[in-house]
Amino acid sequence: MIVKTLSNLHTQSQSCFRCLRAKSTLSAVIDETVNSGLILKSMSTDVFENLALEDWIHDHVDLQTRSILFLWRNAPAVVIGRHQNPWQECNLQAMRQKGIPLARRRSGGGTVFHDLGNVNLTFFSSKKKYDRHRNLQVVTSALKGLRPDLDVRATERFDILLNGHHKISGTAAKLGRTAAYHHCTLLCSTDRVLLSAVLKPTCQGIHSNATQSVPSPVKNLLDEDPTLDADTIMEAIASQYNTEFGFSSPITNVDPSDELLLPGIQKMAHELLAWEWIFGKTPNFRICTTFEMKDGTSICNVTLNMDIKKGIIEYCHIDVPSDWLPMELSQEFSSHLIGGKCCPYEMSVLAAELLRTASRNKELGRKMYNLCKKVIFMM
Ligand SMILES: Nc1ncnc2c1ncn2[C@@H]1O[C@H](COP(=O)(O)OC(=O)CCCC[C@@H]2CCSS2)[C@@H](O)[C@H]1O
């Protein structure tokens, strides 16, 4: 197994790839890169492992004297900003159906879709050296170096647009006390149909102060030039990063699940996977919505009011005309949901409990069942 210290790695040629393996921790290896740069590329396509590696670098590496560029790609995933509401941003039902995970990152900003056709770039530096314009310049210059005819420009809100109209990159950042990172996406050959399908919110009537995404028309770089590919683009960006900052770092492959190299990283990944982080960190919100219920030929309008704090239903009132469903049944349903997580699995258990115990005739049982299904489907 090859064990490389950074000083070894610096002697390698630009295009050379190296794998870090655990002999020393990554921070010990990185300690040898004082006053220079390091380019890391993830060997994982797991969104939680990759976000955990960002956290690990931010928390464990002294970024006062060194800068790092981290290149990574994920299997299909939706990534929301730190202060967003997933029910407001994405189609959770479609994501569950397709097995697409939802991740909440630690940086602010809007919701994006990732797949292997999307490249993520994280620029770590001291807070003093944090410069999003310069980082995006690295990306646009690298693209122009590859294809001089490409019209790619960074905007004032740090998107990158293709031909002045289509977004190919979105930016977010996290500023710590002394260190910072700026990360951005780059659409190379992402599944745009899937992107639109999963970023279409389904839950109506949400009132919240959560950060809202800014939807834009998107395009892939490969739609513009099919001879490009994600690996060539990543190599060009790595090379331009070295040129721009005067470094000579090769690309070093890192396995973000390697606990020996990155002590504590698995705990960090688990924190990012927890319901309490992904859904529980949603800013408090209210759902006020009206929907139609049918039972044979009888139709009625149902009004739902819910207050959700830390992802938990704190208040619930389901208003159903009493000639359609006796008030005590709708009230029983409402009070049964209070204290539960706004989560279809937990709600299904609560609803099943209620449907089992509440005594009623066949017609009322059917109406209650359909009402439960409708409410659970919104989660
Ligand atoms: N992958 C990707 N790249 C660029 N733009 C996208 C992408 N997915 C969706 N979108 C479009 O951007 C808006 C949201 O734009 P908005 O400006 O609201 O948010 C962002 O751009 C956030 C970028 C976060 C980058 C991080 C880097 C590593 S982890 S995620 C969305 O509604 C779509 O129209």
Automatic annotation (TrEMBL):
<dbReference type="GO" id="GO:0009249">
    <property type="term" value="P:protein lipoylation"/>
</dbReference>
<comment type="pathway">
    <text>Protein modification; protein lipoylation via exogenous pathway; protein N(6)-(lipoyl)lysine from lipoate: step 2/2.</text>
</comment>
<dbReference type="InterPro" id="IPR045864">
    <property type="entry name" value="aa-tRNA-synth_II/BPL/LPL"/>
</dbReference>
<dbReference type="InterPro" id="IPR004562">
    <property type="entry name" value="LipoylTrfase_LipoateP_Ligase"/>
</dbReference>
<comment type="similarity">
    <text>Belongs to the LplA family.</text>
</comment>
<feature type="domain" description="BPL/LPL catalytic">
    <location>
        <begin position="63"/>
        <end position="249"/>
    </location>
</feature>
<dbReference type="GO" id="GO:0005739">
    <property type="term" value="C:mitochondrion"/>
</dbReference>
<comment type="function">
    <text>Lipoyl amidotransferase that catalyzes the transfer of lipoyl moieties from lipoyl-protein H of the glycine cleavage system (lipoyl-GCSH) to E2 subunits of the pyruvate dehydrogenase complex (PDCE2). Unable to catalyze the transfer of octanoyl from octanoyl-GCSH to PDCE2. In vitro, it is also able to catalyze the transfer of the lipoyl group from lipoyl-AMP to the specific lysine residue of lipoyl domains of lipoate-dependent enzymes but this reaction may not be physiologically relevant.</text>
</comment>
<dbReference type="InterPro" id="IPR004143">
    <property type="entry name" value="BPL_LPL_catalytic"/>
</dbReference>
<dbReference type="GO" id="GO:0017118">
    <property type="term" value="F:lipoyltransferase activity"/>
</dbReference>
<keyword id="KW-0012">Acyltransferase</keyword>
<keyword id="KW-0808">Transferase</keyword>
<keyword id="KW-0809">Transit peptide</keyword>
<keyword id="KW-0496">Mitochondrion</keyword>
<dbReference type="Pfam" id="PF21948">
    <property type="entry name" value="LplA-B_cat"/>
</dbReference>
<protein>
    <recommendedName>
        <fullName>Lipoyl amidotransferase LIPT1, mitochondrial</fullName>
        <ecNumber>2.3.1.200</ecNumber>
    </recommendedName>
</protein>
